[in-house]
Design goal:
38% of the residues lie in helices and 14% in strands. An eight-stranded parallel barrel has the order 1-2-3-4-5-6-8-9, surrounded by five helices. It binds (3S,4R)-3-hydroxy-2-oxopiperidin-4-yl beta-D-xylopyranoside (XIL). The site of (3S,4R)-3-hydroxy-2-oxopiperidin-4-yl beta-D-xylopyranoside has 8 residues, from loops.
């Protein structure tokens, strides 16, 4: 047999691997450490979906067994004009998940943010009727969920419909359709793929008002016989919010409804945050140097505090692993995190588990060790 360059590369790769990992000792892997507890997920961006970020992809394969689409399935991206769908990136995303035997979550079907205007207006720019918006929601959901039927295993059906004080967010969906837009979205998703799991997803879920309203919403859906399988707690955190005890109360309250609880978008920012606990995407603040204190690197004591905060939360997740089905990080490395540009553009944040060099941070081993306690 002729030795091709591909073969040589394979042999060289295998040799490298056997040298870097001590014999009889497996390379540390988050998904392996947590395999009896819950899924460990991450959000995939265009570089992952199109295969250009090869180092990122290697990390995903090694450490994660669940994936969610960071942007490519949002209505603004996938149906920017009525009836014109761009499936290409989402197709790659789903294919990657299948090839790697990962649990695939679709994100997100009905969300006020990153939703194109055409959903709500006619060619004159006037609001359309309730019937028209319902028809558009139905078409969007049928097309998307239908395309990936049996392949995408769970959908964030409705995202961020409730405000922190528990009142319902006054979105265009609510304004034009009325309160039953949520119920209709779940109904359409279930019709499009009866096997798919369906979730309600939101940020600041440790806030008492939001917790109570989400519980009420889910009870209402259940009472009406609408399928809902889980509640996603986004988990965009800081060093001083949310309060871990309040977060635990929400895990308990949600699990008591008989649905799965998921941490769906975890990251812990280390930068000054101008707004209190929120993940409101529309929020922006101007760049100032004092708002970007770690551009040159992270002081050891800050990293130690960060490690402890992640460990405290993962210890909580382990304590409730009978209720939690998945913990998903919102990105792979600190290079790709949205936190670098939100709510202040152009900063250097460190909210994820892998560094800009694609290496696991020391916290990864700490999280792995927690599973052995
Ligand atoms: C964010 C993405 O990470 C960014 O790339 C994009 O510019 C804005 O949206 N809550 C959600 C996610 O449900 O979809 C958001 O993702 C972060 C907040």
């Amino acid at each position: 047999m002729k030795l091709t360059t591909t073969w040589l590369a394979t042999i060289a790769g295998a040799l490298l691997l056997s040298c870097s990992t001590p014999q009889n000792e497996e390379a540390p892997s988050l998904k392996k450490a947590y395999q009896d507890k819950f899924l460990i997920g991450t959000a995939l961006n265009a570089g992952h979906n199109y295969g250009t970020d090869t180092l990122g992809i290697a990390v995903i394969r090694e450490h994660f067994n669940a994936i969610v689409a960071e942007n490519c399935m949002k209505s603004m991206h996938i149906q920017p004009t009525e009836g014109v769908f761009f499936f290409d990136e989402a197709d790659h995303f789903v294919q990657f998940g299948e090839e790697n035997n990962m649990y695939i979550t679709g994100h997100t079907l009905v969300w006020h943010s990153q939703a194109p205007d055409w959903f709500f207006i006619n060619e004159k720019g006037e609001d359309v009727s309730r019937e028209v918006v319902i028809e558009r929601i139905k078409n969007h959901i049928y097309t998307l969920v239908g395309r990936y039927k049996g392949r995408v295993k769970g959908w964030d059906v409705v995202n961020e419909a409730i405000l922190d004080d528990g009142s319902w967010r006054n979105t265009k969906f609510k304004e034009i359709v009325g309160d039953d837009y949520i119920k209709l979205a779940f109904q359409f998703a279930h019709e499009a793929d009866p096997e798919a799991e369906l979730y309600y997803n939101d940020y600041a879920m440790a806030q008492e008002g939001k917790r109570n309203s989400v519980v009420e919403l889910v009870k209402q859906l259940q009472a009406e016989g609408i399928r809902i399988d889980g509640i996603g707690m986004q988990g965009h955190m800081g060093m001083d919010y949310p309060d871990i005890n309040e977060f635990e109360k929400s895990i308990d309250a949600f699990a008591a409804l008989g649905v799965k609880v998921m941490i769906t978008e975890m990251d812990i920012t280390l930068l000054p945050f101008p707004a209190g606990e929120t993940a409101e995407v529309s929020l922006t603040a101007e760049y100032q140097e004092k708002m970007n204190p770690y551009a040159a690197g992270l002081p050891a004591e800050v990293e130690a505090a960060f490690n402890k905060r992640y460990s405290d939360f993962f210890a909580l997740f382990l304590k409730h692993s009978d209720k939690i089905s998945r913990v998903t990080l919102w990105g792979v490395t600190d290079n790709d995190t949205w936190r670098n540009d939100w709510p202040v553009p152009g900063r250097t944040d460190y909210p994820l588990l892998f560094g800009r060099d694609y290496q696991p941070k020391p916290v990864v081993q700490q999280l792995i060790d927690l599973t052995k306690e």
